[in-house]
Amino acid sequence: MEHQRVIATGIIMGESARWHGGRFWFADWKKHLIYAVDLDGTEHQRFSVPSYPVTFDWLPDGELIVVSGSAGELLTLTPAGDFAHFASLSDLSDTPWNEVATCGATAYVNCVGHAYPGPAQVSGLIARVTADGGATVVAERLAFPNGMVVIDDGGTLVVAESNAGCLTAFDIEPDGSLARRRVWAAVRGSAPDGICVGNGGIWYADVPNQCCVLVAQGGEVLRTIEMGQGCFSCAVGGEGSDTLLVMAADWPAAMDPGALATGRAVAVRLGRDRG
Fold it and tell me: For FRET with 134, which of 102, 109, 114, 128 sits at 20 to 30 Å CA-CA?
């Protein structure tokens, strides 16, 4: 079994794992907070976000942009350390906005497309947000879109469809639109949530199956890491990119009002030749 080390506790619902600037970033959706910590758990920064889902990414100049999901708004972190309006998303859908991934100066933000919790629907969408704050829908009919990542040197956007058990890819066109939708990898019985690039494939966190999985294009499972809790998001980081950083918590208890803080941030040593 891989060496697993807990680096943060006291989290209600941890999500949005990111490795950036030599630090591990994550969000606690229930507390509406974003944290930046070292791999030993030392906290360096925290930011309060108005509403959840809370996801974030960086523009090429280092600007942090944040989804305030229930508010249907994309925010930007100001030099003063507070948030300012960047783009409105609620006109495109009044259901919760979820993940964000940047490609150059363009941000892609996805939306569940229906009330959650509630009956599953194939009604999710992806919006493109330009540098001037303009937002347009560029993909529709997604089965609960979740984690997203840009691969192929900016040529491809991959989104996890949690209710379809697959990772779906789009070509990113020169104008920022999305084209040639296809299944990048399908894994029967999976429910992929947060995703990140790994050596030879893409890691996805799986809540009901309580694991993180490295899958190759086409669907071959390269590696599975059992966590014993629902896994919501993951990121590869550390020196030599040899660590998988996982946000895990008891499920479905983490969604309950007054949920206990069972969430953990866990560092899993991979070894430089394994993912």
Answer: 114
